[in-house]
Each structure stands twice: as C-alpha cells, then as structure tokens.
C-alpha cells in the first residue's frame, strides 16, 4: 500500500510517501512562499524520486486543522481532489495531534499549540504512553492565559511543543513554572511521515463532505455577525 501524506496547516509544509509503514521519502519546507505554489511541485518531486505514479497510490492522509485558513484549504482541497480523481480513501488527522506525535515515544502530557493571534491559540492536550497518544483535552481555540490555567490544574509536568513557542514562553513559565518543558528545533515542526503512522488504520472520511477544522470563524463571518448584532 502506497500512502501519500500532506500537511499545509501552517508555515511549514510537509509531504511524504510511505509503503505501508516503511518511509520512502519525506520533503519539508519552511519558507514564506505560498503553499498553493509549493504543494503540487513538491508532491510531483517526491513521487518522481521514488518512481511512483499517481495510479500506484492506495490512500491519502491529510492534516485537516486547526491552523492557517489558507494553508488548510489548499492542503485539504488538494487531498480531496486527488482522492476523488484516483478513487482511493482519504483519511484526516488533527494538525495538533500531528505535532504532538513527534513526542509519541516519550511519556506524560504534551501540549501542542499554534498562535491564533490576539492572545489566542489553537491547542490540544495529549498524553503519550507506550508509543501511543490519547486525547486529554480536545483541540480548541482559546485565550492562552485561560488555557494555561486549565493545564495548571493537572499538577503534572507538561511538554510544550509549537513552531511559535517564543510568542508565549514568558506566560508559560509564569503560570506553569518548572513543570513546563519545551521541545524546540525539528521536533517542534510537523512531519508528514507521522501522519501515516497516526492515520494508516483510521476510517476514511467522506471525500465530498469533509472540510478543514478551522476552529474559528473566518473574517467575513465575523464581520457579518458584528454587523447583524448592531442592527438588532
């Protein structure tokens, strides 16, 4: 079974090809270029490198949020289009779970998060144990200070992992103190190969109805709600 994995949730973009659980190739970029320009050439590149044709693919796994609105839309739409065209299953995995999975062979609580601006974060809490992740608190969009207060209630060491850790590091140490541990470097970035390990045995989604999990209203929806609230 040849599996294509795609993540465009945030600034880093990662794609990978696996044969069953064996990695064939993984390609990750961390630049400001638009994923709409990068994604298809990256997929074409890795497939040519390992001599796999689109018809040879058996499944596609994509990170479906939360994260960048534009990035998610590009990645999920591309994955849906390929899966529909090739008539193969599509599986989705949380983008936050994907980052937490870099620490799947550690032990204890893992908080993965992305900056959602205005003091908010996209975040979730997971527990790593014996090479598996279990969800302790679901993915959500929440004020970082409120989230850290909730984490503090666990009374346990928590490993924080994020591509944007510097934005909230002072607040984390102020509230969690020495119980907060940071993971930085390559382990703080999404790796598409982890999508395969997380999603290979999960049930496929409906290609036509599945959509990114934004966990927030887009700007146009916010403005519409504000305008209608003022008119009431």
From TrEMBL:
<dbReference type="Pfam" id="PF00814">
    <property type="entry name" value="TsaD"/>
</dbReference>
<dbReference type="GO" id="GO:0005829">
    <property type="term" value="C:cytosol"/>
</dbReference>
<keyword id="KW-0808">Transferase</keyword>
<feature type="domain" description="Gcp-like">
    <location>
        <begin position="31"/>
        <end position="152"/>
    </location>
</feature>
<dbReference type="InterPro" id="IPR043129">
    <property type="entry name" value="ATPase_NBD"/>
</dbReference>
<protein>
    <submittedName>
        <fullName>tRNA (Adenosine(37)-N6)-threonylcarbamoyltransferase complex dimerization subunit type 1 TsaB</fullName>
    </submittedName>
</protein>
<dbReference type="GO" id="GO:0016740">
    <property type="term" value="F:transferase activity"/>
</dbReference>
<dbReference type="GO" id="GO:0002949">
    <property type="term" value="P:tRNA threonylcarbamoyladenosine modification"/>
</dbReference>
<dbReference type="InterPro" id="IPR022496">
    <property type="entry name" value="T6A_TsaB"/>
</dbReference>
<dbReference type="InterPro" id="IPR000905">
    <property type="entry name" value="Gcp-like_dom"/>
</dbReference>
